[in-house]
Amino acid sequence: MKKLPSIKAVLVALVAIGCLQFTTNQIARITVIEPMSAFTTLGNSLLESVVLKNNMNQEKKLTFNANELKMLKQEIEVVNLATSSPVSVYDGLTMEELIEKLNRNLSSDLSGYGASYATYALAYGVDPYMAVAISLHETGCNWECSGLVKSCNNVGGMKGSGCGSFASFDSLDAGIEAMISNLAQNYISKGLTTPESIGPRYAMSTTWSGKINAYMNQIRNN
User: Fold this and answer.
1) pTM as predicted
2) 131 three-state secondary structure
3) Is the pLDDT of residue 109 over 90?
4) How far is the first Cα of the chain from the last one, in angstroms, to the nearest whole number?
5) Using an 8 Å Cβ cutoff, are 179 and 158 in contact?
6) What percentage of the chain carries pLDDT values higher than 70?
7) Is residue 222 a contact partner of residue 204, using CB atoms and an 8 Å limit?
8) DSSP-assigned states of every residue in 8-26
9) Is residue 99 within a helix (H) or strand (E), and if so which, with residue range?
């Protein structure tokens, strides 16, 4: 029986073909056939075919046993993930980049919670920079978080019960979501989308919006 090509050899061939496709447009596409309903057996080995089609619609079939095919598919998936185009989620940043940027501006008890801010802000349609900026201003977490954060997980100065006249939450993650949800439901949905429009309703201070904008610029430029 003819010796099957090694996994590495096939991967090299696939990568080479992929590069050729992007650089010279000589390869129209690569098609990996999924497991077929009828399998060919040879020496008790389960065989499948990978079909490579070039722009001349010519085909070349490479056969693998079941274990080799499984390994090949796993390697192709890894290559696809590594070479896929990153998706911008906000301000030209990928999700990973956004989280890293937010984390660079979070310290004290909020250190490392960039993923929570990014996830909830995008889910609720809130500017993630503004969400973090409000937390930094309301909690003092730009330096050291206030007792409201440490004792009640309240990251937005939200009124309520459980912590005197302020709301209390079971975790920081829950507090972050509640603050962002509050912004979305009671401000953003009503057309109040900027610190200037949110400020008169969110805080008594007439300088609140200016301070929020300063924090947003700090986050954006960090």
Assistant:
1) 0.63
2) helix
3) yes
4) 62
5) yes
6) 62
7) no
8) HHHHHHHHHHHHHHHHH--
9) helix 95-103
**Residue 51, pLDDT above cutoff 50:** no
164-198 pLDDT tens trace: 999 999 999 999 999 999 999 999 999 999 999 99
Please, which residues have CB within 8 angstroms of residue 73's CB and are 6 or more apart in sequence? 32
Residues 102-116, mean pLDDT to the nearest whole number:
96
Query: Locate tokens 């008594």: which residue?
Result: 204
Name residue 47's amino acid.
Answer: L
Residues 96, 12: Cα–Cα separation, whole Å: 29
- Domains of the chain (ranges; CATH) run 7-83 (2.30.31), 88-221 (1.10.530.10)
For residues 158 and 18, what is the distance between their CA atoms, to the nearest angstrom?
54
**CA 162, chain centre distance (Å):** 33
Q: In degrees, to the nearest 5, what angle opens at C-alpha 88 toward C-alphas 178 and 142?
A: 45
Structure tokens at 94: 């990928």
